[in-house]
Amino acid sequence: MASSSNRGGGGYYGAAPYRSREGLSTRQGTGSDEIQLRIDPMHADLDDEISGLRNQVRKLKNVASEIESEAKYQNEFINQLQMTLIKAQAGVKNNMRKLNKSIIQSGSSHVLHVVLFALFCLFLVYLWSKFSRR
């Protein structure tokens, strides 16, 4: 009797407008991420549907754990890259400091050599111009 009263013209628990041919129906819930699922016992075996849903949940759990392990691996890799970059920056800064010191210490002698070379070249041009007139 109870089952015949549920089979009345309105459908099962008010789900008639949302029912699909397979016996499952979905509709958007009140929350933005909620989905309501209704199972029609006349068209599908509940145990099969529940085991199918369990298998899907198990697969989703495996995928989520793989994503988590991949995210951890990527985070560790990024941390190693950051440490390598910090060490490289420190090395470059140290080398720049040493290079600046050596330039300051030997820079005056380079300028003196350049000035002497320029004077020598001017002297040669002067001599060449003087002897080429004759």
Write a concise keyword list for the protein shown above.
134 residues, mainly alpha, two-stranded antiparallel ribbon
List the helices and strands and how they pair.
Layout: H1 2-6, E1 24-28, E2 35-39, H2 46-132
Antiparallel strand pairs: 1-2
The best one-word shape is rod-shaped
SSE order, one letter for each helix or strand = HEEH
Number of E strands: 2
- Residue-averaged pLDDT: 77
Helix content: 55-70%
Briefly note the structural class of the backbone. Answer: mainly alpha
Euclidean distance between termini CA atoms: 137 Å
Q: Based on the structure, what is the oligomeric state of the protein chains?
A: single chain
Helices, by number, come to 2
What's the main sheet like?
2 strands, antiparallel
Could you tell me the strand content as a percent range? 5-15%
Low-confidence stretches: 1-21
Strand order of the largest sheet: 1-2
Rounded radius of gyration (Å): 42 Å
Could you characterize what this model shows?
- The protein is mainly alpha-helical and 134 residues long.
- Helices cover 69% and strands 7% of the residues.
- It has helices at 2-6, 46-132, and strands spanning 24-28, 35-39.
- It has a two-stranded antiparallel ribbon.
- Strand 1 and strand 2 (35-39) form a beta hairpin.
- The termini are far apart.
- The model is unreliable at 1-21 (pLDDT under 50).
